Amino acid sequence: MNDTLNLLARRRSAPPPIMKGPAPTRDEVAQMLAIAARVPDHGKLAPWRFIVFEGEARARAGALCAEVFRAQNPQAGEERLAAEQARFSRAPLVVAVVSRAAPHVKIPLWEQEMSAGAVCMNLTVAAVAMGYRTAWLTEWIAYDRDMLDRLGLEAHEKIAGYIHIGRVEGEIEDRARPDVAALTQWF
Ligand SMILES: Cc1cc2nc3c(=O)[nH]c(=O)nc-3n(C[C@H](O)[C@H](O)[C@H](O)COP(=O)(O)O)c2cc1C
């Protein structure tokens, strides 16, 4: 297998809590995002955008998580609030891929949203090819309107994924993979 196939055949996610720095450099991030944006995109709409959380910005975003969580769960204990404060700090870098899909005369919403999924996967593969490990997460912060407002998402925008990126030493045990033959029909 060549390097590309080998990467794709072996890639697997890593849990953010075991991710270490250093974070990708600004140049590396720019390269990752350029590759991430190179996806099939019916109508050339670029129906997605990025929000990058790095360094102290992760703590600022975490403070928003804790604030929203506390407002909605007044009984929340200090431990839970500390976990919310740390939500964006588990990995050295988090990139939110935001779907900007909107009604269009020709291009269905579904196709625009799938393009955002492709962006997430391209970003994942680019980061892994650069020596990092990743986790594509959504969690409650992808669906809570108060949180999305605080992150500056417009009403029609959605989080396709928070791609967590960092360094992990050693191998990570794989998960069971689907039986592809059982899922494949040769028509
Ligand atoms: C859109 C999307 C959202 C996901 N959100 C979560 C999540 O919030 N929490 C989680 O543990 N896994 C989540 N996952 C699953 C992981 O990203 C990942 O697929 C899985 O942990 C292992 O798969 P892999 O090793 O092939 O990457 C999500 C996957 C997708 C596609």
TrEMBL record:
Span of the signal peptide: none
- A single GO molecular function term of this UniProt record: oxidoreductase activity
The entry marks the following residues as binding FMN, namely 11-13, 38, 42, 136-138
The main enzyme category here is oxidoreductase
- Nitroreductase domain location is 22-167
Q: Which cofactors are required for activity?
A: FMN
| InterPro entries given in the database record | NAD(P)H_nitroreductase (IPR052530), Nitroreductase (IPR029479), Nitroreductase-like (IPR000415), YdjA-like (IPR026021)
Q: Where is this region: Disordered?
A: 1-21
Keywords in UniProt for this one? Flavoprotein, FMN, NAD, NADP, Oxidoreductase
Enzyme Commission code? 1.-.-.-
> What note does UniProt attach to the cofactor annotation?
Binds 1 FMN per subunit.
Give the UniProt family note: Belongs to the nitroreductase family.
State the name under which the record lists this protein: Putative NAD(P)H nitroreductase
